[in-house]
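Case study 2.
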Amino acid sequence: MNRFFTQQWPRMLFGAGTALELGAQCAAMGVKRVMAVYGGHLARSGEADRIFKTLEAEGIAVEHFQNAEPESPDYVVERLGKAIADCGADCVAAIGGGSAIDTARAAALYSQCADIPFSACQEKGFVPLTEEQLQAVKLVCVPTTAGTGAEMSAGGPLLNTKTNVKGGPFFGPKTAELVILDPELTVGLPPMLTYTTAMDALAHAIEGMTGKLRSPRSDLFCGQAVEYIWRSLPKVLADGKDLEARGELLLAASYAIGVETLRHLGHAVGQPVGGMFHIAHGQTCALALPPTVRAIAHAPEAERELRLIAEKMKLDAASPTVGEAIAAAIENRNREMGVQSLKELGLSFDEVKKTLPQIMADGRLLPNAPVEATTEVVEGILRGMYEY
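Prediction:
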C-alpha cells in the first residue's frame, strides 16, 4: 500500500434547493460583505439574483461581479482581485462552473497583494502569502456544472493570455469554507456541456485512481465517482430534469477531485492543448481519456485499479484487455455524443505537436503516471486526440 496523507474537505451542503440557504450559511460564518462572482448567463436568467438576495435578507452587504469568463483568464482575476480589495469583502461567493470558481479563488488571494500587477505574480510563478492572508477572505462555492470539482480543490489553473499557457501563479492552497451542491442549478445545462463536464470528472477519477499517488481513499471516492458518472450520465442526457441523476453527477465531480491524489497523463496533455487552441477543458478531457487509458493499459501498477474501474463501468473486469475495453467504451460514448476530434476541429497534427515542449516540461502531473511519460507516449495520446 502506498504512503498517503489526508486533508480536510470543505464543509458540504447537498440537496435540491440548498442554494437558497446561502444567506443563512454565510450569516452563521459571521460574513459581513460578500463579493458575488458569476457569469453573464446567470445574471440574465435571474438565478444568481434569486440566490444572492438570500444574503441581503440576512443583512449581508453584496457586491456583484458578473464578468467571470471561461478558462479563468489573467485579466479577469486581476480585475476581480482589485475589486475585492477595494470594497473590503470578507467573503467571495462563486456561482458557476470551474472557471468562475477558479477565478474567484485566485482573486480572493490576489486581493491580499493587489498593489502589484497580476502580470508580476505570473512572472514570479509563486507569490507566498502568510496564513493570515490565505484566510483573510472566505470562499464559498456553488457549482452549476458537474465536472471540474473546482469547489473541492485548493487551487486551479489560470490562463496567461500573453502565452496561452494555463498554470500559476499560485499564492498557496485555499480551500472553500463551504460548498453548496444543489442539483437544481445544473438542470439547465445543455446536453453537450453536461457530457463534456462529466468527462472532466471521469478523467479526474480514472487518473486519480491509476496514478502513483493513489490511495485507499482514491479507490473509495474516485471509484464511486466512476460508478455515478457511468450510470447517471445517460439518464441525464435522456432527461435533463432527473434530479437524482443530476445529484449523482455533482457528487461524482466533487468526489473525484476531493481526495489527495493527482491527475497524470490525460490532464498533462489536455491542458496545454486546450490553452494553446482555446478548446474547452471538458472536451480535451473527453478526447485525452481513451488514449491515456490505452497508454497505461499494461502498466502493472495500474492493473488492479483498471479492473476496479471496469467493474464500476459494468465491463468485463476479468478480461486480459480490460484497459482497451475501458478506452473503447469511453470512445464510443464520445462518438455517440458527436465530440469532435482535434482533426475535426480543423487543426493539423503538426500544429498539435507544437504543444509537446510545454507538455514534456510538466514536472507535476507527468511524474504521477504509472508509466514513463516519454515523448513517444505523449505523442501517442496527442495522436489519439487528433483522430479516433
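The longest helix spans residues 216-238.
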